[in-house]
TrEMBL record, chains A, B:
Keywords of this entry: Magnesium, Metal-binding, Molybdenum, Molybdenum cofactor biosynthesis, Transferase
A GO term from the CC aspect: cytoplasm
Protein name as catalogued: Molybdopterin molybdenumtransferase
SUPFAM superfamilies registered for this protein in UniProt: MoeA C-terminal domain-like, MoeA N-terminal region -like, Molybdenum cofactor biosynthesis proteins
GO terms assigned for molecular function: metal ion binding; molybdopterin molybdotransferase activity
Naturally occurring in which organism (per UniProt): Candidatus Methylomirabilis lanthanidiphila
Domain (MoaB/Mog) ranges: 188-324
Length: 403, 403
């Protein structure tokens, strides 16, 4: 084994441009039911083939009237209209509203012919078949015209929109049962490292359980991907080549593990032989030994082997790439601003992801070391320290991105 | 049909206290695999039955040494050590490191007996079996002790934690394949209203498609619940009673529709007969005709029939209740602050949810009317206007909660 130190590091911005450029939005689509559609990305333009509502309707419980019949009504001078019919929601009036008459309507009921407004029940009194109207209405008051919500022919949802509850409501309003969405990117998660075992296997000397495949899969699920964990890749060039070849049926290939320079060289060589290395080594902390390549058009990201490095780069590099592929767009991580509990020194020249928790309104760094998954699990979020900043003062206000 | 106007409105805070008090966290648990566990809530305390790492290990690629053998090393005065063995990750050394000797180790490899530090490969030169060390190390440098990440016996994850990628990583590190989480609350979504049809049915005069069951189900899924849409409830007291009885196998009952006072009275009567009305009518806009009851210990929420009213109250009232039941805790909706594009007047005495979108960095109200689902679908989020505020000035900075 010849151990070669990594070459000069690429800065994060340049690295991200390369990754984002190689990450291509998925074009494949599938049909899902409205109940399955929440959080998915619409793959068709949705144009209305009907008006919503499909008829003019009462917007209040009350009496459908000819507005002019109510003009001049007041608390001491009610206009008196004859109640000629009572209809409920879902029913249509048989009669038309003629002058000095009215029809009782429930909210949502179709407006009877002849009526152009609804007097609210609160502004009336009923005496057998006489309705005393105490307040005038103007034409169209408390009546929703046909197509007020959605006009037939209008295109209400655009391709690429994320389907949130309101947009699913629009589909329901138009009578859709299914909708065409983009497929989720399929992601091959390939663990490697002779020292790792899958959870559930019996631990033997020198071995540890695979952490990265699980943290990455969880992150992939959270960011719109479909992870598939591969068997642990053997530490040989042949194994790397045949595994990557098998993974070419996936949209994105994520290699996890291979933390040591030796293992990494083997991955680098496999990618070099099969495609192109875009970069190897990036100026972030932790997470320096990150690899980016393209094999037959497929983006391949080699994550650092250390669990914290792997996961912070998961948030920083993998998730944005995946969100471009899945078309979910940038993740709006909830964030808050709070002061540092103590001075913190960072490494100049490397963009740092610092896991933190909040204690009494102050930001407490919880980074233990890159090899410790508890560095992340004890954190509530992270702060980013740009490459050109080497010191955060005690009390300095920073932005915490919450997991 | 006798139409009764609603009684005095409860303020939002008092209403929320009632709803939140009646919403009880789910106690039932289930086992899921680590891959299914992301976003779920842990129902057990997780204590380590092993150290992580389970052995002292090299934290760098390099040479395991006795630190004292490197003292005094410098660029012009290397210490020369004999390379007696080469081990890779996953292997254990057969030999011990004796004075003036070293063993080549990869990151993650167990520390050989006798060694107490690792010299980084960058600080050395190899000449056949002689390793020139150009920089001294102190004891424990670049070596991670056994249990550094997690100590055997320590309890690392607590019941009630939401399983994010890092916490799933902790479970993987400890060799877990499955984990016990709280079951998701099962939610009965019961549409009503004689005027509604399910999407896919042929539209007939006076009828509209059900929107609320779909917006609510999407919202329920997004907030940790398992929605089940019931058949459309008939508009009779008997139907209401038998449907609610059937829904008592669910954790939460959500009635949607019944926008008119008449339909609502029927629901109120059914709930009064079977259990207790907690409130009927709340000082929010839109969403006033909201009903809260408890039937045999089950929280029941009657949502307003109008789609926008229903969905804003879904975000404002239903989602917090569900997140208490599912133990997900308050939703940290991403938010941003921006100025109002124009003056906006609100209703004093009612807490308003105003759907808005952002245009050129300014907040644009998009509220059309409560009956229009496009009031919400055209919005990117909403602002809240407290009951005691009746005016937002043009340029006033408000907080937008993003969907």
């Amino acid at each position: 084994m010849v151990m070669k130190p990594m070459k000069a590091l690429l800065d994060l911005e340049a690295g991200m441009r390369i990754v984002m450029d190689a990450a291509r939005p998925i074009e494949r689509t599938e049909q899902v039911t409205l109940l399955e559609a929440v959080g998915r990305v619409l793959a068709e333009e949705v144009c209305a083939s009907m008006d919503v509502p499909p008829f003019a309707r009462a917007a209040m419980d009350g009496y459908a009237v000819r507005a002019e019949d109510t003009f001049g009504a007041g608390n001491f001078s009610p206009r008196i209209l004859e109640l000629i019919e009572v209809i409920h929601a879902g029913e249509s009036a048989r009669l038309s509203v003629r002058p000095a008459a009215c029809i009782q309507v429930a909210t949502g009921a179709p407006m009877p012919d002849g009526a152009d407004a609804v007097v609210m029940v609160e502004d009336t009194e009923l005496d057998r078949t006489n309705v005393m109207v105490y307040k005038p209405v103007y034409p169209q008051q408390h009546a929703s015209p046909m197509g007020e919500d959605i006009k037939s022919g209008s295109c209400v949802l655009q391709r690429g929109m994320r389907l949130d509850p309101s947009k699913i409501g629009v589909l329901a309003a138009l009578g859709f049962q299914k909708v065409t969405v983009y497929q989720k990117p399929a992601v091959a998660v390939i663990p490697s490292g002779n020292e790792i075992l899958m959870p559930g296997e019996a631990l033997s000397p020198g071995r540890i359980y695979d952490i990265n495949s699980y943290t990455l899969s969880a992150l992939i699920s959270e960011n719109g991907g479909l992870p598939q964990i591969f068997p642990i890749m053997k530490d040989t060039l042949e194994a790397a080549i045949s595994t990557i070849r098998e993974a070419l049926t996936y949209d994105l290939i994520v290699l996890s593990g291979g933390s040591s320079v030796g293992e990494r060289d083997m991955m680098v060589e496999a990618v070099e032989r099969m495609g192109e290395i875009k970069f190897h080594g990036i100026a972030v902390k932790p997470g320096k030994p990150t690899l980016c390549g393209v094999v037959e058009g497929h983006l391949l990201i080699g994550m650092p082997g250390y669990p914290t490095s792997c996961l912070t780069n998961g948030y920083g590099i993998l998730a944005p790439a995946l969100r471009k592929m899945s078309r979910l767009g940038e993740r709006a991580l909830a964030s808050l601003k709070a002061p540092m509990v103590r001075r913190y020194t960072s490494t100049i020249g490397r963009h740092q992801y610092l896991p933190v928790r909040l204690d009494g309104g102050e930001v407490v760094p919880v980074f233990k070391e890159s090899g410790a998954i508890t560095s992340m699990a004890d954190a509530e979020g992270y702060i980013e320290i740009p490459a050109n900043v080497d010191l955060l003062e005690k009390g300095e206000v920073v932005e915490v991105l919450l997991f």
